[in-house]
Write a structure and sequence with these properties.
There is one protein chain. The protein contains eleven helices and eleven strands. It is an alpha/beta fold. It folds into two domains: 59 residues, no CATH class; 185 residues, Rossmann fold, CATH 3.40.50. The strands form two sheets. The protein has a seven-stranded mixed beta sheet, with helices on both faces. The chain has a four-stranded mixed beta sheet with strand order 2-1-3-4.
Length: 259
Amino acid sequence: MIVTTAPVPTMRTIEQSKRLAVELSAQHVPRRGASVRKLLERSGDGRAIVVTDREIRFYDGDEAPPLYFHPSMAFIRVKRLRKGETDLLIELSGCLPGDRVIDCTAGMAADALVFSYAVGESGSVVALESEPILCAVVREGLAAYESGLDDVDAAMKRIRLLCREHSRFLADQPDNSADIVYFDPMFRQPILESSAIGAFRSIANMDALTEEVVNQAKRVARKTVIMKEHQGSKEFERLGFERRHVNTSKIAYGVIHVD
């Protein structure tokens, strides 16, 4: 994989691209007018990160659209919270201002953003992403994205995104040290029409949750352990979650109350 910049880079994007190349053990290549296709041909594995003034884009081949951070539906959900409306994830998890949340499967950090807004300045959200490329794309996006709403941008920047594997992280946490532990693993039955999922599925962690991890989550959480899955999934029963259907979509939540 290579890391480069937009065709007309700034000093900031050059330094950022060099830093990411070191972090991801990738080759840093000056752009020098080359097309994305030419860069991908030079990369050896058909993968490249392009750093622009607005975002970083990950390309996995020249046919798939690039992956970059955007709050997407999370922004709409947060705007509803701003108006005093409810969010089902926040409601089912029992999330309150001041809570500490561990999002074990950050992905694009959509749910982490909703949690971060809900817990407010007095709370905290630690979001874990085990895949280095995805973690870098999302971390840099959270730091740079401007939504036009100061409180939403502040919620993004409060998220502490770590490139960690959740089983090891949870094992290191003291008992009852978080209020909520959340899982959104890649669905065993994918929703194929979701372009947002398709864009990063090739670099996401596809491992299923284990009973051991769920037991660690129950030890760490004071209030709830919650999981999102396809509504027809058998993972809820296998892992001991109480299934809560979401009637207007193809997803459901599973809840374990530990308090």
